[in-house]
Design goal:
The complex is a heterodimer of chains A (about 290) and B (about 150). Chain A has about 290 residues and is an alpha/beta fold. In chain A, about 45% of the residues lie in helices and about 10% in strands. Classes of the chains: A alpha/beta (about 290), B mainly alpha (about 150).
Chain lengths: ~290, ~150
């Protein structure tokens, strides 16, 4: 067993549409000698059905938490939405009445929910950053990198409270530790619009267009994300969002694990870079 | 028929909380949706709800435009915001009414294997990528959790 090991929860979007996030997370954590345990039988975190039925959504989450808890390891998520859902579910599960409902619905005994972490907490940890810095294999110092931190790791603040939603520091800390220049831009903390994309793409595309244009305006040559849904919106839909803009420049969108992996000298294949829609050619020699 | 007849505990509590809203508009100026979509105005939605005029909101497409980013909740000087109200209005609107097409598909997928996408279709692709196969849970378990949603 490795000194640090987590039960990993990938979530739907990463597994189905953002495999580059899974590939790069596996590679980077392996490189840092941090173990991941895959668990069978997991499902959606529940967040997408939160607007329909809160109890059903939280029950989906608790079912996952139960399966993950069997590993007796802390839980690691790489998605903001899954992270929020699990934190919400943990809070709700403290209620004994709700525990009984769960017992009945899922046929499981009461259990302890392990600590829940987001990948960005692991990577922005001081000791881990020192470790990463000591293993530098590739120069990213010339890069001007915008951060898109997304919403549900930070908001609503009163429930999540690990970071500052108005001035998120986690991505910045990682980018700066690697020697990159962190580029601030207008409406940096604004949502990517992914949750509405289920209903209609028009509005999210407008949100993406404005975000990308703001990043460009402030001189970013790339952007890092920490959530598969944000990555999907900014990368997969970027070309469509910029369609009507004359002379618009596409901005490569990296999962934070891809950026760390590049710094650690991992190959494009090991980071799933070929799966990114906006290519990196102009930014870095891979 | 009085609307109160189908007001459950959650909405009653929210309606009590939003009485604190004094219509300053911080939610509107913070909202990533309102900026692009004039039909969506969280301040106005809060006002309607304060007056307990919920019926037009429940039937409206507008409540499905919120991204639930919670910026309005975090920035509200009265700790109210619109996101929690919107979520509850959505829950009320799907009880016996129309569900947006996207959600119908999601529920159908979830009932099959617990994921919102057809996960079983990608294991071969995962193998080519050198990723381990996904082993899904029992269909019956998910059906039971999702019983009665639609």
């Amino acid at each position: 067993m490795k000194e640090r090991e987590y039960a990993i929860f990938w979530g739907c979007t990463t597994l189905y549409r953002e495999q580059s996030y899974e590939i790069s997370t596996r590679s980077v954590l392996q490189e840092l000698d941090i173990g991941l345990l895959d668990v069978n039988g997991l499902g959606c975190c529940g967040l997408p059905i939160l607007p329909l039925d809160e109890d059903a959504a939280i029950t989906m989450a608790v079912r996952n938490l139960y399966l993950l808890a069997q590993t007796e390891r802390p839980i690691l998520t790489i998605c903001n939405g899954c992270y929020k859902m699990f934190r919400d579910a943990s809070r709700r599960y403290e209620d004994e009445e709700f525990q009984k409902i769960i017992e009945e619905k899922l046929g499981i005994e009461k259990f302890e929910i392990p600590e829940i972490y987001h990948i960005v907490e692991i990577l922005s940890d001081e000791d881990v950053l020192e470790e990463i810095k000591s293993r530098k294999k590739r120069e990213i110092g010339g890069m001007r990198i915008a951060g898109h931190s997304g919403c549900h790791f930070y908001r609503p603040k009163k429930d999540l409270s690990k970071g500052d939603p108005e001035r998120p520091q986690e991505l910045r800390r990682i980018v700066e530790a690697l020697g990159g220049e962190y580029v601030e831009y207008w409406d940096e903390t604004e949502c990517c619009g992914a949750t509405v994309a289920l209903i209609d793409l028009k509005l999210p595309l407008e949100i993406v267009r404005e975000k990308v244009l703001n990043m460009e305006r402030f001189g970013a040559d790339s952007v890092v994300t920490m959530c598969p849904s944000c990555h999907m919106m900014l990368d997969l839909y970027q070309r469509q969002a910029l369609r009507d803009i004359k002379g618009a420049r596409e901005i490569p969108v990296l999962h934070i694990t891809q950026l760390v992996g590049l710094f650690l000298g991992l190959s494009p294949d090991e980071l799933g870079l070929h799966l990114n829609k906006v290519k990196l050619h102009n930014v870095i020699v891979t | 028929m009085g609307e109160r007849e189908h007001l459950n505990g959650a909405i009653t509590q929210i309606l009590r909380e939003i009485k604190r809203c004094y219509q300053c508009g911080t939610c509107v100026s913070s909202c990533p949706v309102a900026k692009h979509e004039g039909r969506y105005n969280p301040r106005r939605i809060l006002r309607r709800a304060q007056l307990e005029n919920l019926e037009p909101l429940i039937g409206s497409d507008v409540i499905w435009l919120c991204t639930t980013c919670y910026t309005c909740v975090d920035r509200c000087p009265q700790s109210v915001g619109a996101a929690n109200l919107i979520l509850e209005l959505r829950r009320m609107s799907v009880r016996g009414r129309k569900l947006p097409e996207g959600f119908i598909k999601i529920i159908e997928e979830l009932k099959k294997d617990g994921y919102i996408y057809p996960i079983d279709s990608i294991n071969r692709r995962r193998e080519r990528m050198g990723l381990p196969p996904i082993v899904v849970g029992k269909k019956e378990e998910f059906e039971k959790i999702l019983e009665g949603i639609i």
